[in-house]
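Model it.
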Amino acid sequence: MATDIVLLEILGVILIFNIIIADDPCKYETPNKGLIDLSSIGKMDGTPVWKDIPPDKTENYVYSYNPCYPFSEKLCTNVAGCQIGKDGRVSYSIGTQASIIWKNTLDDMPSLVYTSADRTKQLFVDMLCIQSDEHKLEVHGETKTNEYHMTLSTKCACWNGCKDSPKPTKPNSLTTGAILIIIFVAVVFLYLITFISYNHFRLQRSGIDLIPHRKFWIVLPGYVKDGIIFVYHRVICSSRGAYQSV
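Modeled.
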């Protein structure tokens, strides 16, 4: 009985030191070794750093991978890794960022383990510490059924190798046109609220009289029509007539 308890305690210690479920898919930190930070490698724009990479063995698939931040490609949505058929007709998630597990190896170099949302596939990314500014990814493909392996070689895999590296910035998803539309809608909303409140509380108006500058908005379509006709006559058929005064 005592022997069984000791064995269970030993197994518990091994599990604690060899598997750590990370709160952050970008970072792994230990008191003795320091910090491994992958946040400066990954892209934040929803696309993978490595896209459609063929494996080092013959397969009918290519693979995409993005450390730290989720991406989407084909039918893979918000994933860490994606398996895509060479013809582009099929694609499968092979792991999500939220599922990441940091696992210690015998050489004290953590590896990453991702699991797909349906928990049918797993992606294993071994890390290799190199003294280079270049980040390299080797794709080994499907080594066992529903198990996929890659090797990430980077200085960020070294302890404290990228501790002070600048993080990628998230791109602005709004275009200039979208920003202008938002500003226009906000100005119109403010205009309506301000003058409707003024007409109601200060001028004691009600009904359609609450509409600010109502007479102007009623005649505006007529002015617009006259302007279009004037421009049409001037540009297309200027000899047919002239602008009529109102």
